[in-house]
Amino acid sequence: MNRLSIYGVVFVLAIALAAIPLTSAAQIYNPEEDLPKPTGLEKRLTKLGRGLSNIMFGWAEIPVTFDRKLDEGKPLAYLLGVAPVLGTARAFMRTGTGVFEVVSFPFSDKAVNYEAVLEPEYIF
Question: Please, is 61 exposed, middle or buried when counting C-beta atoms within 10 Å of its C-beta (0-12, 13-18, 19+)?
Fold first, then answer.
């Protein structure tokens, strides 16, 4: 072997040996412990944003419901007769929930659960 290839092998081995301690020093990631807990203000602002989103996009439940029922393979009569009624009902529920969350976000107590009332939390 020539001198250049020996230096190359030694260099690669040195890099490999230097990288071994890096892999053994990996940290375990636990989001329960590593992420900071949201404050009361952050929870209130999340509730406000969710409420505004539900007010602005509540109407979108109509086409979303139609699309979901179409993906489920419902017949055309169902899509034209029942899906718009279901979508309209869900639109009123989402918009009403948005109004409730916008009106009630500043009055919520710290002990109150800030989870979403509707699932999914956001329509889009």
Answer: buried
